[in-house]
Amino acid sequence: MARFAVELVFGPDREKRLAVRPEHREYITSLAEKGVVLASGPYADDTGALIIYEAADEAAVKEIIAADPYTPANVAEWRIREWNALLGSWVR
């Protein structure tokens, strides 16, 4: 399995994003319970968020993101980068 750091950059329609956020958080919570999301949370300035996924490959991450309620709502830009974690409790 590979790890991916995915940055969300929130769009200008804050009201629309906040309306979808409960569904997004429920989805991310379900992925965390399955071990697919290792960490997730918004930046302190509320301009975006960072989600760390564990998946087989980038194609799998793109499928996961496609199912996220934020995607059809078009409230964020997704930036995917494979991440090689070297130190920390996630490293096996």
Unreliable sequence segments: none
What's the β-strand tally? 4
Instruction: Give me the strand/helix succession.
Output: EHEEHHE
Residues in helices, as a percent range: 25-40%
Q: What would the average pLDDT be, to the nearest integer?
A: 96
Structural class: alpha+beta
Radius of gyration: 13 Å
Instruction: Summarize the biggest pleated sheet.
Output: 4 strands, antiparallel
Number of contiguous helices: 3
Q: Quote the distance from N terminus to C terminus.
A: 11 Å
Strand content range: 25-35%
Strand order of the largest sheet: 2-3-1-4
The dominant shape is globular
Describe this structure in words.
The protein is α+β, with helices and mostly antiparallel strands and 92 residues long. It is built from three helices and four strands, in the order E-H-E-E-H-H-E. The protein has a four-stranded antiparallel sheet. Strand 2 (37-42) and strand 3 (48-55) form a beta hairpin.
